[in-house]
Specification:
The protein has 100 residues and is mainly α. 83% of the residues lie in helices and 0% in strands. The protein contains three helices and no strands. The longest helix has 37 residues. The radius of gyration is 21 Å and the shape is elongated. The two termini are 36 Å apart.
Length: 100
């Protein structure tokens, strides 16, 4: 239900901005969004949040797989073991991200 509501609100907002404000206002909003996205403070904060998210996801992955490992089908357990071994061997995270 929450996703439907979010979609409807986004659709209504897009309609209002598109019909009432016109192309000029759209360009202003686009320019402002680009300036915010290119701000070094925003980029650093986003990268820090991404790194923390990767760290928490890795911890959750390992703790859940350790607790649930015996209760999973063999095919799933084998895949989890291979992911765990690969992440320990090369030091990369399980998500394929660059960690930059």
């Amino acid at each position: 239900m929450r996703y439907k509501l979010t979609f409807v609100v986004g659709l209504a907002l897009g309609y209002v901005l598109g019909t009432r404000a016109g192309r000029e206002r759209y360009e202003q909003l686009k320019k402002s969004a680009r300036q915010v996205a290119q701000n070094p403070a925003v980029r650093n904060t986003a990268e820090t949040a991404a790194q923390q998210g990767r760290a928490y996801a890795g911890k959750a992955f390992h703790s859940v797989s350790a607790k649930v490992g015996d209760h999973m089908p063999d095919s799933v357990a084998a895949r989890v073991r291979s992911l765990r071994e690969r992440s320990q061997a090369d030091g990369a995270d399980d998500w394929g991200t660059s960690n930059t």
